[in-house]
Backbone:
């Protein structure tokens, strides 16, 4: 695990205190080669897992703010998302608005059947059938929003974040393209988020609907200091759509990319599902408690660990000077949580680069302990923990359980040889496997009939 605090331009008042250690310097020259080429910010690398937990969870009142990101917040490209706002009235109002629907296990029980419909609709053509192209009227806009978000929030990608005064440069000035880009992306984002909200409202009026966030968010949000467009129902639905893109689509492609390379994992999961649940129905959320220490649950945990879809969690910022162990953390230090490194620490996970669900099964050692559950890390820390983590956790379980229960997933064969090698994982704020080919078929005629019956139910 690692995270990186760096000192703001204002410096740190306790100059005789010891900062976390940085890179090794050169003889005589010291760390002159590590000096930033622009912006005047000092980076410090730290690698202490327990201390990160101490800082971001137990001291969340200090470390739950968000650093100032001029391009996204001041210029508008990310002003719609509370994930990029500090501990403001808008941030608190957002958490308060979304908690009744998604903030607890009890709250999401009202959506249990609809969570299953999401998975079944995606796998077997459900209530909303997407166009068989990349330009579907609902799916394509949400993909565009996530692409804009990933580009605009990338740390260090925009010079204006290092030199905030650049935001005052007029758009007609040569090389002042960033303001034009920001304005275009901001307008695109709002328009794209309004599309699915308008569709959902139309469904409520014209079609018999089941519980959804759009219905529950129709109640006005209590007035709050800092209330903005991002806290309107369509803004809140935009947050939900963005999170669903990460938690469902990106994780599902990660599941598939691993399963084509590990047929033994599928075989073990198939055997357990047949033994515990049978083939007369698909697994549901009620079955999760019966599988609490099962191989299927271990499969879910391992894919979360092996491929974090957000390998570098959104940054946190400290609101005052603090001390952690022997080191001082200056006020306004920025914490970048390297989730991928934490999930692949050899000291924590044995043979971390290997996909091995068995690591999460109770061992035969004296205490029976398995390796740490990734759920405590992958959804974030402190007051910035993912507000929809309970819905995401249930969705991930159903994605894995229902897909494995009904289908065989194999590598595609071209000219007698496997078409895909293990896919490469893309870098960036949001990661997903590179394109790969696979085949997916019902396991047996019994499962094919079951899929057809479910399809009729959700059409």
Residues:
């Amino acid at each position: 695990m690692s995270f990186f605090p760096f000192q703001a331009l204002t410096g740190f008042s306790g100059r005789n205190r010891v900062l976390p250690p940085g890179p090794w310097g050169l003889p005589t020259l010291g760390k002159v080669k590590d000096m930033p080429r622009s912006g005047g910010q000092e980076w410090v690398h730290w690698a202490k897992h327990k201390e990160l937990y101490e800082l971001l969870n137990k001291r969340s009142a200090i470390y739950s703010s968000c650093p100032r990101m001029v391009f996204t917040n001041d210029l508008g490209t990310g002003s719609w998302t509370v994930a990029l706002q500090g501990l403001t009235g808008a941030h608190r109002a957002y958490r308060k608005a979304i908690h009744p629907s998604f903030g607890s296990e009890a709250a999401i029980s009202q959506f249990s059947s609809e969570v299953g419909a999401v998975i079944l609709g995606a796998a077997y053509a459900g209530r909303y059938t997407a166009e068989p192209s990349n330009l579907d009227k609902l799916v394509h806009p949400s993909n565009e929003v996530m692409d804009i978000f990933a580009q605009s929030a990338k740390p260090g990608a925009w010079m204006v974040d290092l030199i905030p005064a650049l935001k005052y440069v007029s758009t007609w000035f040569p090389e002042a393209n960033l303001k034009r880009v920001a304005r275009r992306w901001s307008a695109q984002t709002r328009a794209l988020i309004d599309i699915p909200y308008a569709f959902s409202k139309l469904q409520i009026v014209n079609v018999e609907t089941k519980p959804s966030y759009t219905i529950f968010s129709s109640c006005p949000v209590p007035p709050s200091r800092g209330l903005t467009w991002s806290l309107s129902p369509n803004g809140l639905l935009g947050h939900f759509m963005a999170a669903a893109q990460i938690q469902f689509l990106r994780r599902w492609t990660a599941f598939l990319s691993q399963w084509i390379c590990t047929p033994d994992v599928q075989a073990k999961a198939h055997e357990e599902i047949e033994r515990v649940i049978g083939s007369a129905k698909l697994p549901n959320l009620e079955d999760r408690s019966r599988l609490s220490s099962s191989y299927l649950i271990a499969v879910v945990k391992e894919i979360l660990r092996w491929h974090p879809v957000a390998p570098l969690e959104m940054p946190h910022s400290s609101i005052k000077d603090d001390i952690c162990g022997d080191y001082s953390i200056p006020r306004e230090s920025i914490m970048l949580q390297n989730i991928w490194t934490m999930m692949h620490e050899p000291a924590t996970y044995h043979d971390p680069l290997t996909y091995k669900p068995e690591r999460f099964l109770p061992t035969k050692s004296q205490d029976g302990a398995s390796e740490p559950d990734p759920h405590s890390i992958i959804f974030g820390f402190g007051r910035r923990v993912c507000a929809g983590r309970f819905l995401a956790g249930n969705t991930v379980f159903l994605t894995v359980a229902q897909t494995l229960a009904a289908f065989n997933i194999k590598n595609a064969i071209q000219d007698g040889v496997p078409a895909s090698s293990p896919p490469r994982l893309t870098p960036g704020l949001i990661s997903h496997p590179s394109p790969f080919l696979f085949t997916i078929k019902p396991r047996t005629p019994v499962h094919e009939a079951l899929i057809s019956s479910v399809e009729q139910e959700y059409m």
About this structure: Residues 119 and 399 are 6 Å apart (CA to CA). The longest helix spans residues 177-206. The chain has a mean pLDDT of 72. The beta strands are 6-7, 42-43, 316-317, 322-324, 327-329, 334-335, 407-411, 413-414, 417-418, 438-442.
